[in-house]
Amino acid sequence: MNTPLLIPNEDLLRSAEDSLRRDPKHTLELLSTVVLDTTATPLDRARALLLSARASLHVGDLATGEEYAQEALDISRTNGIRRYEGLAHNEKGVFRFVNMDFDGALGHYAIAEELLKEHGTELDLNKVYLNSGNVFHRTGDEVQAIRVYETVLEIADRTGDILTEAKVSTNMSGMYGSVLFDNETAIDYSRRAIALYERLGDVVGVCKAYVNLGNQLRETGGREEAIEFYRKALDLRVDCSEPMDLFTNYRGLIVTLLQLDRNDEAKMVFQNAMLHPHALARMPGVEYLVEVEAMLLCNDEKYDKALEIINEVEAWVDDRSVDEMKYDLLSLKARCLRGLGRLEEAIDVMDGLLPRQITYTKVRANQRLVQIRQHYELVQARTAAEVERLRSVELASALSEARVLHDTNQEYLAFMAHELKSPLTSIRAIANVLMSDSKVTASERLTYCKDVYDVSTRMFDLISQVLDKRTSEPSYVQRDVDVQSIWGHVVGLWRHRVAEKNMTLNVTSLPTPIMVRGSEITLISILDNLISNAVKFSPVGSTIDVAMRTIPVNQEATRLLLSVRDQGPGLTANDLKQMFQPWTRLSAQPTSGEDSTGLGLVIVKREVDSLLGRVWCESIAGLGATFFVEIPISRIAAHGAKQLS
Description:
Helix content: over 70%
Radius of gyration: 29 Å
Structural class: alpha+beta
Mean pLDDT: 81
CATH class of the domain at 475-644: Alpha Beta
Number of strands: 7
Low-confidence stretches: 1-7, 469-475, 636-645
Distance between the termini: 35 Å
Number of helices: 26
């Protein structure tokens, strides 16, 4: 019988997990020692940092929370803790979402999904799917959001994940209330969420659900009951308040009080809200309170000041597409203009308001119809597909195999043509130097000639593979090869071409030879294509960083991590989804008119897969991209490599 392994800090971490959504401030206090303890195991620190990141979010300390999430990501990646690397990307996505960087959020969620499919649990993946649905909701793709939420809810029901079921119920209530105008369904979801959160003792969740229910009751005329739920949420949010949630909570309460003509009470609530630390720090979403201030000023007939505030908030609303505030804001603006005697301007605002509201209502109604229709069509399509599959499984399989074989042959020839372009470009760059630079010494000429010989030999080997091809897949000789030497050679060849764009190539190399089980051609192709893309899509005069280092996976294995970072335009969330698909042109364009076939990253993915490794990209649009390649070190060299770490 095996003796259970005692994990340091396990009891403390479990206590922190239990208190996270009940008392996040207490969670931070519990974890403070583990977060700072550099002698704790990497796994314990990664867990503590992720819990601290989420607890920081719940108490409104966004900057510190994101720092914790990044540190957890760095520790997990460096120590090969794949599951927590995926969870850390999910957490980074949450902070990007809170900061309204929706492309950045989807980028992190895509990487998290890839990691957690292999190394995580179904519950881990469901968290990522739920967060992705939140992005679709926030960016106006409500139909896709509801489809994702329904899938998440199915998984939560099947796995007995009550917390996720409660979260989805809260999100669905918001979707049905504010988007599809189905308040009855929205209220049902809110009450379901409240029951689940109260069962769990989840303060964070129950506050969100209370506010959702308050909003829906206010819309259906139950204003007194709505006030009750708004106040219950505020009473619970003494030490537990995400800024955006807190501000919308206050807004809902104050608006409802104004609708009931309880103006003095509304002013008192507003004054208390503005004294909250989140409001004093002007945290994201404080504009909800600024809008309320304009309402109060307008009630006091201070129209000039109110109008000034309205114009400020209107710019924020338009910039972030906060449609739910737009109608109220324009109505308030027209009221202020009328109060100032600027009747023509007030009429213009009202003239624009009515068509906007009609259009908005039509769009939402159409979305409801589309959602119902798509759900029906999805069920029909699944049924038809299953019937067809049962009818002709063997025929479909045979046709599929034939198509795959044909496509593979076509792609293989295209890949080889693409691979020949890179060495030819190197030869042209070297030839250009030899022809145009009269200061090249005899020794340098000899070095250039050797480079041309090496590059042309690679071309010869590639052509030979095409001529000798006997199967649909290329067959490279697998042996232990020194990746440090091979990649050092590739970097050396690229210095000629980098110089043509006045770029800087910074390289961090390994101190000693590292052996990898593979082929020289495979390893050359990986780095060559990654540097090629970095050069192609980066502006003239920028810097490209290439780094190689070893990372431990466990006590028995070490892996090699290559990173290539550029200063180009970065990748969008859509780019990240399809970057490894053949013939796909991404959003970025070459900066100096270079050719782009859409095959380079496909080749990299294929070659990395052949080495039993993985490749991924981390990028935020506009801030460059970093490609990572992680491959196993061969058993022969693993011991020596670990001695260096």
